[in-house]
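Bumping my old thread because nobody answered last time. Still need a sequence for this structure:
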């Protein structure tokens, strides 16, 4: 029987899926997938709610927001579950153009977000506070996902944003300044996860998760040169030394196993509290975590 094709909603290219495809893990595990680019986190969770995607590659903070309250852009609390962690942020950081060369320059600046309620936006507020910046002195505009935000910095629409993965690499190569990263915020910061609607994990999704773990372990064990070669076969834009260094980094890179811990979720909840945003309760955290 032909397996169901898992529909994956993502913001940018997944290195894990690129490695899985290059290694022909779809054949080994008897599962296939197709990816859909989502323009924003509200659009991603609307697609998940409506059954237009099966799995979301997203921030765990987004899952907390949509799974524990109706105080989100969809105005609806969704029934969601974490499937597994993916990475520790992939050098998630606050980046700015040359127009911001000192902390004082943030005053009056225009900074880009996905939407103001998103996890990356809340993280940016926390990062600004750690620099001693009063975020009320800056203007925030909704630009969309990370590739759009990098483009908006490049064309001068905004002066800075939170970026990660290939957009962080491109930002640094373009001379943008990195002010603070997720690792500075917490050593327990969890950057990206797989999530689905709550309920049983189907056989196809189970196979997809097994495939994901095999690809993750390959990323962690390959030499940098071998990983660049594998990525180059499916995602040439990711096949560069800086990106590979991030993927294999213990500080920012890919994570093995399927546990999303309560402590990791508490870190995200505390970031929200620090910024005065909605934060999930301890009961919500324990309900959603997979180690409690």
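Sorry it took so long. Here it is:
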């Amino acid at each position: 029987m032909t397996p169901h094709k898992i529909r994956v909603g993502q913001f940018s290219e997944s290195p894990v899926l690129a490695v899985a495809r290059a290694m022909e893990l779809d054949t080994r595990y008897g599962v296939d997938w197709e990816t859909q680019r989502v323009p924003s986190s509200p659009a991603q969770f609307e697609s998940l709610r409506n059954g237009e995607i099966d799995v979301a590659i997203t921030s765990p903070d987004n899952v907390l927001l949509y799974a524990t309250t109706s105080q989100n852009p969809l105005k609806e609390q969704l029934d969601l579950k974490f499937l597994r962690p993916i990475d520790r942020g992939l050098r998630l950081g606050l980046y700015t153009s040359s127009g911001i060369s000192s902390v004082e320059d943030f005053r009056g600046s225009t900074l880009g977000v996905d939407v103001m309620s998103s996890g990356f936006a809340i993280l940016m507020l926390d990062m600004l506070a750690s620099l001693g910046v009063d975020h009320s002195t800056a203007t925030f505009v909704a630009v969309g996902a990370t590739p759009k935000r990098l483009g908006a910095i490049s064309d001068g629409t905004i002066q800075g944003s939170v970026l990660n993965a290939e957009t962080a690499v491109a930002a640094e190569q373009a001379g943008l300044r990195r002010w603070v990263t997720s690792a500075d915020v917490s050593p327990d910061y969890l950057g990206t996860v797989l999530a689905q609607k709550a309920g049983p994990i189907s056989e196809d999704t189970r196979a997809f998760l097994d495939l994901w773990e095999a690809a993750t372990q390959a990323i962690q064990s390959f030499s940098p040169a071998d990983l660049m070669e594998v990525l180059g076969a499916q995602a040439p834009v990711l096949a560069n030394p800086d990106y590979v260094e991030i993927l294999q980094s213990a500080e920012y890179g890919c994570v093995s196993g399927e546990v999303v811990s309560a402590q990791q979720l508490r870190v995200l909840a505390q970031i929200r509290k620090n910024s005065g945003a909605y934060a999930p309760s301890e009961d919500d955290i324990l309900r959603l975590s997979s180690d409690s």
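The first helix runs from residue 15 to 22. Let me know if any region looks off to you.
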